[in-house]
Design a protein that fits this description.
The chain folds into two domains: about 260 residues, Crotonobetainyl-coa:carnitine coa-transferase, domain 1 (Rossmann fold); about 80 residues, formyl-coa transferase, domain 3. Helices cover about 40% and strands about 15% of the residues. The protein has 17 helices and 13 strands.
Amino acid sequence: MTTAPPTGPLTGVRVLDLATLFAGPLAATLLGDYGAEVVKIEHPAKPDPSRGHGPSKDGVGLWWKLLGRNKRTITLDLSKPGGRTTLLRLAATADVIIENFRPGTLEKWDLGWEELSAANPRLVLARVTGFGQFGPYARRPGFGTLAEAMSGFAAITGEPDAPPTLPPFGLADSIAALATAYAVMTALAARDRTGEGQVVDMAIIEPILMVLGPQPLWYDQLGHVQPRTGNRSQNNAPRNTYRTADGTWVAVSTSAQSVAERVMRLVGRPELIDEPWFATGADRARHSDVLDEAVGAWIAERTREEVLAAFEKAEAAVAPIQDVRDVMTDPQYQALGTVTTVDDPELGPLRMQNVLFRLSATPGAIRWAGRPHGADTDTVLTELGLTPAELTALRTEGAL
């Protein structure tokens, strides 16, 4: 396979992806989607576990095809002297390193910030861990699930009389990946002014807390602890999922007062608009039973298509509850090109999520899907200047 050169707004930015599962690698993917040259560095005998996560086809992990896209893959054992030396040579050519080893691991291999910044003072080192680089939990094993539990997310998710609920996907990791990509770009912007790189310390427990909203502020000022409310909201109503006559589900939101009024007129209960408590979202939320009964009864008598058409005509907010089968054929996603097809030499055409956002002048692109383990080792290291004899020596040492 010939890997096309990077194009896009980040062309010229070189990223070394040392991370595994999932926040760090996804941050590197997001950078690669917009033109950064990403070199994925994996252990020779222990590749990124995402290669084996979830379903596979013909022995090839499908998750990796998404997470590894736009990355060249090489192998390198950083604990070996030759691996350490080679990484320092790579670091001298890089703009960014993303790693998620437990704090102290790189330092154990004499590859900490002191050594890396000496090799390249302009380097940005993004360190993505469960709990950050310091504090009482810093050296604990950290995964996104723990962040979803610790942050307050699980505590407010689920029905009031049911256990706290964890998401069935990597929510905290994905949020941390977005935050890490943003942090890297912020650090690169600072480097453009100062000429010096720096360390990004990203704790997975923190970005998810930010997106949960003003819970700390509410608690600090009012002693308020947000409870589990299922699909309902404390801030507006009606807001819930409702079953249609043909056995499907739709979601209704009324964050705006005008939309709440339109919904009640649509479902034939305009008298509720005149109730004193209908004037604010919080007061409506305290009367969710009444509003849910009105909306739910109306929706239960109609098919999903009838409900969606009526809500659209009334300019009220509704969406179908879709699974991935629906997503793949949804006309809005199709119009946006949200799911695109990538040709892959191992598996043929693959449909996957497109790049995250559209830029009018310098768009991102998926140049290839995740590559086999170590597929580009010789090419990348030869470009670095290593001779065939040096490559042989590294393989003899077990560093490749």
